Amino acid sequence: MPRVGLNQQTVVREAARLADEVGYQQLTLAALAGRLGVALPSLYKHVRGADALAQKLSALVTAELATELTAAAAGRAGGDALRAMADAYRDYAHRHPGRYPATQQVPDPTDPEHVEAGERAVGAIFAVLRGYELTGEDAVDATRALRSALHGFVSLEAAGGFGLPREVDRSYHQLVASMDISLRSWPASDR
Amino acid sequence: MPRVGLNQQTVVREAARLADEVGYQQLTLAALAGRLGVALPSLYKHVRGADALAQKLSALVTAELATELTAAAAGRAGGDALRAMADAYRDYAHRHPGRYPATQQVPDPTDPEHVEAGERAVGAIFAVLRGYELTGEDAVDATRALRSALHGFVSLEAAGGFGLPREVDRSYHQLVASMDISLRSWPASDR
DNA sequence: GGAGTTGGCTAATGATATTAGCTTTACGGC
DNA sequence: GCCGTAAAGCTAATATCATTAGCCAACTCC
After folding, report:
1. Whole-number Cα distances in Å, B4 to A70, B36, B43, B125
2. Cα(B52)–Cα(B70) distance, rounded to whole angstroms?
3. A102, closest residue in chain B (CA to CA)
4. Nearest residue: Cα versus C1' of D7
5. Residue to substitute from A82, A178, A180, A191, interface B, most B β-carbons within 10 A
6. Closest residue of B to A106, CA-based?
7. Residue of chain B nearest A153, judged by CA positions
8. Which of A24, A123, A153, B156 could be stapled to B148 by a disulfide with Cβ–Cβ 3.0 to 4.6 Å?
9. Mean pLDDT computed over B29-44
10. Is A161 helix (H, G, I), strand (E, B) or coil?
11. What is the DSSP string of A4-73?
């Protein structure tokens, strides 16, 4: 049997591609093995199992997303940065519907690359808030609010929770505009 | 063999309880059958299969959530209504961690009860917006924004995406306060 | 009390994931 | 070049889950 020449990286990358084609839920070791031209158990030479694959995939796609968010915000500030980052976020989810769910898995503390990717992603959002002069607890709260709004919208949209596409674009635009307003006049924390 | 006396309702209700105990992902026909004291294939006398069970479960829990949201907003207006509803929303997710994910499944158009439950849930949110005098497209956009913020926060929290619980309470409070501000000065749609 | 409906069962099939253990390829050192 | 070994592939076996088919017993209703 000629060797295919796989390694962990090629396996995880192919998993990302496959996820985009068939959906995150349908990403299965069996399908992945078939795609790579290999028998299912052979994958265990490169990943510890299905859970480990999901974790490595999460590390990969979180890093991708972090890079795109950072790039979008680079050279911009305030509302410009916010809008650019928000657009990049939703755009990533649209281009990579199967990868996107993997970005929401909490980083595995034992995988430095995963942890670093997560920090970069949150850091990109955090950086945008500097333009709104939010610091300390306020910055933490605002980061969470922004993540919630973006992730919530994107995941509801992906689930088909909204209506017509055209209208959805407008709604997202308005959501981002409303976040801009919120961040400009961030409510005082009473504790 | 003595009959257990199941019907669709008892099966779906038990599925909801089981989901809260073991998690939505771990809700399996096998586990449910075991819990009900019945062999797995017997469940097919009451539900068409795993997908149908998930759909019926969604109808049940969406109705529950809609009822709680409606009750929370009743007799209140404006910011009061918003805060009460937001608290009820997160509270439901905390009390029913296994049911909550099922609330996000898009209603099955062929199941009138499911559709009605979905409409009531969105209607509850929509009603809160009356206090902010938002109508037409603005109300649609604002409803989506509010759903996104609440669902995003709750699902990130459930996934363990945030840190210390105490801090998370504060962040949610601030998120809701910021939504109140946004809704008061909802940005003009430029189209 | 019997007929029919229905709720339970067992058995069989097919995905999927996982583990064990075998074989052969590739490659580095001599 | 040869040989030893680590690693990459394989088959086989096991377990869990979902699904379908077909059987049988228990309620129900006249």
Report:
1. 59, 8, 11, 40
2. 27
3. B159
4. A45
5. A178
6. B161
7. B148
8. A153
9. 98
10. coil
11. ----HHHHHHHHHHHHHHH-STT--HHHHHHHHTS-GGGGGGTSSSHHHHHHHHHHHHHHHHHHHHHHHH
pLDDT at residue A20 greater than cutoff 80: yes
Instruction: For residues B44 and A81, give the distance between their C-alpha atoms in angstroms, rounded to a whole number.
Output: 53
B104 to chain A, any CB pair closer than 8 A? The answer is yes
Distance, first Cα to last Cα, chain B: 67
C1’ C16 / CA B83, Å: 45
pLDDT of residue B2: 73
Do the Cβ atoms of A170 and B144 come within 8 Å?
no
Amino acid symbol at B68: E
Q: Which residue type sits at B73?
A: A
Distance in Å from D24's C1' to B1's CA comes to 10
Query: Mean pLDDT over residues B27-51, rounded?
Result: 98
Q: Say if pTM beats, i.e. exceeds, 0.70.
A: yes
Distance of alpha carbon A9 from alpha carbon A15, whole angstroms: 10
In angstroms, the separation between the Cα of residue B34 and the nearest Cα of chain A is 25
Under the banding of pLDDT at 50, 70 and 90, the label for residue A1 is low
Distance CA B142, CA B184 (A): 11
**A137 vs B: CB within 8 A:** yes
Residue of A156, A177, A10, A129 lying closest to B101 (CA atoms) = A156
For residue B181, give the nearest of A105, A144, A181 by CB distance.
A181
Residue A175: C-alpha distances to residues A90, A178, B85, B182 (Å) = 12, 5, 19, 9
Q: What is the pLDDT of residues A60-104, one digit of tens each?
A: 999 999 999 999 999 999 999 999 999 999 999 999 999 999 999
Q: Which of A30, A52, A158 is nearest to A105 (CA)?
A: A52
Helix axis angle, A165-184 to A78-95, nearest 10°: 150
Q: Are B69 and B121 in contact (CB under 8 A)?
A: yes
| Percent of all residues in chain A with a pLDDT value above 90, rounded to a whole number | 93
